[in-house]
Amino acid sequence: MNLERKSGILLHITSLPGKWGMGELGPEARKFGEFLAASGQKLWQILPTNPIGFGYSAYSSSSAFAGNPLLISFDELIEEGLLTKHHLSRFPEFDPHKIDFPAVIEARVKILNGVCERFSPTKAFRQFCKAESYWLDDYALFIAIRETQGDASWMEWPEALRDRDAQTLKKFAKQHATEISHHKILQYIFSNHWKKMKDFFQTLKIDIIGDVPIFVAGDSVDVWANRELFLMDEQGTPSVVAGVPPDYFSETGQRWGNPLYDWTAHKKTKYEWWTNRMRRTLELVDVVRMDHFRAFEAYWEIPADEPTAENGKWVKGPDGDLFQYLQRNLRKVSSSAKASTDKPRFGKKFRLGDHVIAEDLGVITKQVDALRVQCGFPGMTVLQFRFGAEDMHKPGYLPEGKEDRVVYTGTHDNETTKAWFKHLDEETRHRVRIYLHTHGDHIHHDLVELAMRSPARWAILPLQDVLGKGRRMNKPGTTTGNWDWRVSADMLTTATVGFLKEMTERNAR
Length: 509
Fold this sequence. Notes:
The chain is α/β, with parallel strands linked by helices. It has helices at 27-38, 74-79, 101-118, 123-131, 133-148, 159-162, 166-175, 177-203, 221-225, 263-268, 272-284, 294-297, 320-331, 335-339, 366-375, 389-392, 417-423, 426-436, 443-453, 463-467, 494-506, and strands at 6-10, 43-45, 207-212, 240-244, 254-259, 287-290, 298-303, 313-316, 356-358, 379-382, 405-408, 458-462. An eight-stranded parallel β-sheet has the order 9-6-3-2-1-12-11-10.
């Protein structure tokens, strides 16, 4: 981990302001970068940028490699000549504070379909398709098939398509070449818009922190095309699924339902799929938050027929073996990296520990912590979890944590700090007041201040806690009402810039 003290903001791209229904990879993203730079921030943490899936969540995506076409910038498309204001003249007006996913998706997809029809393949497009073919070919084919099947899960497709019969797939690809090409075009445009945004943030010297969900969705191209890497039968039916035991968020645990990896099969390939996934992710972002890190040491295995996560068991994961392979494999500069200056040159100086944050929340054992330290990954300290009576009475205990951590007031899964404080029991609320020397009238800023002055090298603040406005992004264990919060441009005031900058400088970040 870079030892320089830094701070930054947690805000997903979809939450950015803008007039096209949701946040995009365009001018509003660059304006937010200018807001960060003006307030002294050096980090921008986002959520996964893969296509959204069930419940509009990117944690249940159709692909661990593809970008979300809904993030393509309409303003950039106008500048590129692929879209005109006339095409957008009947685009609906939407609530600037909330994403109406069904309506926004329908409206944006209609526009993007027109863009694909007007797009003329170029040499650059063909080069992109060749360089990214290791994931792009299967992805475009998968999405095209799913559309012909009424968006049914691949487990419900006709047997020949479900089981990837070579002749059937070849015939389908020939018959649906236009649709397949359109999905590749959208990925090409996404890639170009992403690069333009990332290049701008590099000029501001702001690093982007991405997110790698540990598990993939069962109904994804990752599983359809790589069935042998997961614990399931030939028809794609898993015997066990992923989740976590009862915890802070849920009395019955969380039954995520994702298929579990066959780690023995992964090792036989020298973790090729994981290497490709990490390489692809680090082409887009500077640092990744490794979601649910503890599952690499041991994961919670739930029988597939269990309705909750209560009756699972801990099963040993790949442990340090995976990360040793990733370190070695990512040091090898791929042929695509040599061919393009846009690719990161990992090489001999590459150190995985400089690019990973371990999300070590939940049930953390000595073995999990030892793995994190062995890998050189900083862990996460979430202040909302740090005021329990048992911990506060330990000698030398500090809620703000230690130096080798990334400190947060809360994450995208937490309530806003104002809502958290309001819902605390009176005993815990009293402990918070005493420790922070506050009445709690501005608890969000009190907790932000604690994060900023903590010994943790990096401090990440959800924008809702900086503003004292907004709603939580996600409530774990629920499938509705999540991921839809947006900030409006009028909330990003000069007063907020001044507040953040003063506090950042005062705490040497």
